[in-house]
Predict the 3D structure of the following.
Amino acid sequence: AGFEVETIFGTKSDADFAQKQASAWGRVREAIDEGFPCYGWELKKPEYYVINGYDDAGYVFHGHGDEGVVKPWHELGDSDIRILVVHVVKPGRPTDEVSAVRAALDFAVQFARTQNWLFGNYTSGPEGFDLWAQAFELGRAEGFGVAYNAVVWAECRQHAVGFLKEVVELGIVPAVEVADALLAYQTSADALHEVSELFPFFGHKPEHIVDAWRRDKAIDLLHQIRDAEAEGLDALERLVGLLSAEVATV
């Protein structure tokens, strides 16, 4: 895409967590002075924020609910979520469209099929949605968490649909070869939107999570999503194969 992303990551339980806080603070100030954009996690709410400045005390940032607040640098990551992450976006060299799309789709497949980018107690891909359904079945689902994850993943899957539509528009593979993936991820996006409507993030209520009808409907939808995701990954793997052959002939 023409840029590289430098990341500083840590968790509150790290022995050198204070050092990572200081490293993030120093690197972000250098990057802003150099004119590089930065963004970070949970400068206020559990969202990503653009870091567009700093003062003597901490980060000046912009995003949902910022209200002109400065985040003290030594408080970044010191929260219940316990994660510190900041990114610096630097100029890079763009690659050709076929290689870029192939790399993006291959990453999506690998993220879902392997544990390479996950914390130790996490899962991904279709198994992740199956685990979510099990949380409902076993009475372990938590209201805020369900509402948050539903709205976030619905947005993510809608972006997947948008990305695949762009692949069609680029004309690098025949539209018919993208059709299965598009159908799968549109199905997933629509069903996740339904889960989000059952457990709305804005206006969620404690009684939603104990409502048997909402719970049973969510379980059914998550099983549909799980199956659609499995079909989508198979379709993405086929696309990666086609694009790999295309790259080999360039």
Summary: The chain has a mean pLDDT of 95. The longest strand covers residues 3-11. Helices lie at 17-34, 97-113, 125-137, 143-170, 175-198, 212-249. The two ends are 19 Å apart (CA to CA).
